[in-house]
Write a structure and sequence with these properties.
The protein is an alpha/beta fold. It contains seven helices and ten strands. It has one domain: Rossmann fold (3-Layer(aba) Sandwich). This is Reduced coenzyme F420:NADP oxidoreductase.
Length: 218
């Protein structure tokens, strides 16, 4: 696939870009600053086909991943709604806050970041995925296998199946259909629990769903 990543210079976007390129996909790494995107892409040159571009140019792809901080999420998608018309948009944004007690989920008026994206992008097909995959592991070229499940949520089962295939191009990962888009709020919020686990045990844990067939189907 040709995969565009909005916010591709951040930890999650860069890590996903590295893994998608290593799997043979062509990656457009987007940023508000095209020069910064080009610099980041140059650092991933050994991974595969990665090009640094402005966020607007990263929409020229088969699948566009949104990996920006939630505070800029709505404004960015509003500005790119026309360019994203007819596209598959994969939202992996986690609306979280942090205080002295640690991470906590932030209430979103639309229910979740993914639902916020679907409200704004009326002409796009929005899928939620990649919330629980460690950015540290994704971006470490010495890590060859990233075991765990990627929960994929959406309304269009054919599109969900494509995103499951994309997830499974990451060695060790398994894509799992986890319901319709309205359930994205619990998936996004659970990231706070996972961060708390990782801080307590000083690891980069993901999640695994038990009792499924060896190869789940969308």
């Amino acid at each position: 696939m040709k995969v565009g990543i909005l916010g591709g210079t951040g930890p999650q976007g860069r890590g996903l870009g590295r893994r998608f390129a290593m799997a043979g996909h062509e990656v457009l790494l987007g940023s508000r600053d095209a020069a910064r995107a080009q610099e980041t892409a140059a650092g991933l040159a050994g991974a595969g086909r990665v090009t640094g571009v402005a966020n607007a140019d990263a929409t020229d792809a088969d699948v566009v991943v949104v990996a920006v901080p939630h505070e800029g999420h709505a404004d960015l998608l509003t500005s790119l709604a026309g360019a994203l018309e007819g596209k598959v948009v994969v939202d992996c944004v986690n609306p979280l806050g942090f205080d002295k007690q640690g991470p906590f989920p932030i209430e979103v008026a639309d229910g979740s970041a993914a639902q916020e994206a679907q409200r704004i992008l009326t002409g796009s097909t929005v899928v939620a995925a990649f919330h629980h995959v460690s950015a540290v592991l994704l971006d470490d070229p010495d890590v060859t296998d990233i075991p765990g499940d990627v929960l994929v949520l959406g309304e269009d089962r054919e599109v969900v199946g494509r995103v499951i295939e994309l997830a499974q191009s990451i060695p060790g990962a398994r894509g799992v259909y986890a319901g319709r888009l309205r359930l994205a709020r619990t998936v996004e919020a659970f990231t706070a629990n996972l961060i708390a686990v990782n801080r307590r045990y000083k690891t980069h844990a993901g999640i695994a769903v038990t009792g499924l067939p060896a190869q789940d189907e969308a």
